Task: structure prediction
Amino acid sequence: MSTTLNRVGLPRDAYKGAATTLCAGCGHNSITNHMTKALYELGVEPHRLAKMSGIGCSSKTPAYFVESAHGFNGVHGRMPALTTGAQIANRQLIMLGVSGDGDTASIGLGQFMHMIRRNVDCTYIIEDNGTYGLTKGQFSATADLGSVQKKGAVNTFQPIDPCAVAITLGCSFVARSFSGDGKQVVPLIKAAIAHRGTAIIDIISPCVTFNDHDGSTKSYSWVKDHEESIADVSFIPYFEEVHVDYEPGTIRDVELHDGSHILLRKLGEDHDPSDRHAAMRVIEEGRAAGHLVTGLLYLDTTMADFATTEHIPERPLKDLGDAELRPTRDQFTQFMSEFA
Amino acid sequence: MLLQTRKIVNPRQIRDKLTQHIINDLTIQSATVNGSGSQTANLVLTRAIFHMGIPVAPKNVFPSNIEGLPTWYQLRVTPEGHMARSDKVDILVAFNPATWHQDLDTVRPGGVVIHEEVFSKAEVRSDVTYYPVPFSKLAKSKIQNDTLRKQLANMIYVGVVAGVLGIPLEALEHGVKRQFLSKPKAVQVNVDAIKVGYDYWQDNFSKTDPYRLEPMTGAVEGKVLVEGNQAAALGAIMGGVTVAAWYPITPSSSLCENLIAYSERFRTDPKTGEKLISIVQAEDELAAVGMAIGAGWAGARSMTSTSGPGISLMAEFAGLAYYAEVPVVIFDIQRIGPSTGLPTRTSQADVAFAFTLSHGDTRHIVLLPGTVEECYEFARDAFDYADRFQTPVFVLSDLDLGMNLWMTPEFKYPEKPIDRGKVLSKEDLERMAGDWGRYRDVDGDGVPYRTLPGTDHPAAGYFTRGSGHDESARYTESADAYARNMDRLVRKLETARPTLPAPVVDESTKSSVGVIAFGSTHAAILEAREALAAAGSPVDYLRLRALPLSDEVAAFVSRHERVYVVEQNRDGQVYDLVRLALPAQLVERLHSIRHYNGQPIPAAAITEPLLPKEAVTA
Result:
């Protein structure tokens, strides 16, 4: 383990959490490592981090990184509401929500959509394995049509694609990746944190116990065989100088709210992440071809986040004192007299 | 023992004798069509009479409808200032052909009926005084403003009522000005419309009924007219609310709408538009309470406001906030249930549900305001209770209290600073060398210390969860840790109990009979006690103001031979709660009076079942 200190003077160990209680080989544990790496490398101050989650295997993971940060493991599918409330109570917090496919696409679909609609400033990671792990292997709403359960049952319903839903709703940051692809996931998480607004990252994360077999389209082997990256993502935080070594026309450089840069090196198809139609087309074409398209699908850096739209101050509402909260005695007296 | 809920007696069977003049003691009921603008006319009339120094008690009985269904407005006027609904109508203003015959039945013998001239007089009563007025014709011929004619037509009846009862024009003008505070341009057309009715009455009728209004002094001075939801919104502002999340539902919507209006005035920088509050219209009640809990966790003074169906949806989150110990204030403006029930009618039937809202062993702090002044005070103080005891606090108002105007003394400016409870700062943690546990009972009162997200100390962070946790907030399925935590939560509520608003006890009658009531039932109890005393059967009174129950309740029962719990629900919910809290030998002393038809409880619903039981035998 490296003892190198990051820019806020913390070693990587400071970003560790409690030992995982998930299955050995679970994709979620890889994502935990990616989050730890991203937070450490970005130099996020642990006290400013708020780790939010709902219920399920995915939602247990906030306990497994940055133990010194505050976390809130709420009720099933309602992480977005808790996150929205906490974010407006204190805009200085860095909200990191971790959810699953059941938590997001079934019980919490409404809250997921409304959070996007408001563009609440948070990173929203979906640890997507297409299955209900804790209740032992039922299909979730992201399971592909025709995919097969461990016990042989075939899924007969259309999947809900969280990325397609998010893009349709005008989400300001939509990405997809694979838990085994740290090279792609880590910069995406960093960019999502730097982004001011709701940043959705749908990370396909195979369930080694219930959904890592030949009939599943969310198994390690299926994803490895079918993954198609639309761009090589790299991220340069605001505190590092941008040195780009690239052929003109092959790199797209997007500046994020805090001055960070996300660099997209095109691979194969040229995808413009500011084009919503293109984002939907890439998803649809990938689906038709049986490919899992990964990378930054859509990004809009111009949309105001919720707290800005609500005109609340940058300083936390929680810190307001009596004098700011209560009208004066004279104002109160005047107000009461108007009821006469 | 259970007394039947009161059956409404057919007013035609009431044969009470009218005296020659009836001054300042009457009930006006206007029967109109919803969405026709009648509410403005009703309020102008209310404010005009109030301006004469006469106490008013308006009750709006409205349908769940935007336009077209019948609606009623009852304006009760009494020299004593009775605030409960009356179930006798003295003056009927019949504007709605659809309910004409039904409305006529509600008028007491000797009463007055002001009605649209064209209404059929076939099979009508001969024991009332009629003043037929061609309202439609007058509106067509006398009101020039085409776009406002429908609304202004209602003002004509205000003028007729003013003529009948002798309301001076000056008082009417005041009523109009007060009602159109924000639209001064509307004042003159409305006053003109009132004059149309006033002149028509003067020109066409001579007074043959006994009802009069005369200016009074000493009854309304220093008083204002406030709706409970306005009062609660102001209370929330004074309580320091910074995050409110809500989903529209009758009869609670006006609470957050008033909060929005008051925030524009008191929490918004007029230059920059910056707001020192965030009021979010959520996608449903689950999200509303979830946002409020998220905000409470992060240190905001947070609230949501809802009614019955919303409370049902909030049950799971209420359990989370109870068990994870997150402060949040939840207003329930009760309406008739179950299910959609009667969405625009009043009720006190959420008490038992709210008290234990959630699966699992759960007990909440429930505040029970009985006046609009208490809607203000309890709303304000609820935020302190929530922060002090790190738990959801329910404020149970109802449609009658929340949406009707009530005469009240002006509210008092808070003398106490805002209380944030046991929150550890960075400096506290440094002093303690980081040695703390989120759920440790350091002070032996069951109330732990908490830190807020954003506190810059390595020991500040902890993991909040609705799953089993130990004193350091770590996940555990330990049997002992679970039981210890649940026992501490009991201790915490016991710490809270004596600090909650104490029952208000009046034992001045020295009677062996007592009544217990809470919430908006208070108004009817006050009036019923006067009537019972006048009938020679005075009763003592304990007004409950919070759950869990104060020890005062059992003590009150022990000092009386019979105690009647009066409440506006079918099952006697508080009667049950009180029985459970009594020692076995006192249980038999408790009796139950229940009113649950959705209309605010009248005093007669208490005196009628009680008097036969308690009448003094000569």
Q: What stands out?
A: Residues 27-42 of chain A form the longest helix (16 residues). The first strand of chain A starts at residue 49 and ends at 53. Chain A touches chain B through 62 residues (CB under 8 Å). The CA atoms of residues 117 and 169 of chain A lie 6 Å apart.
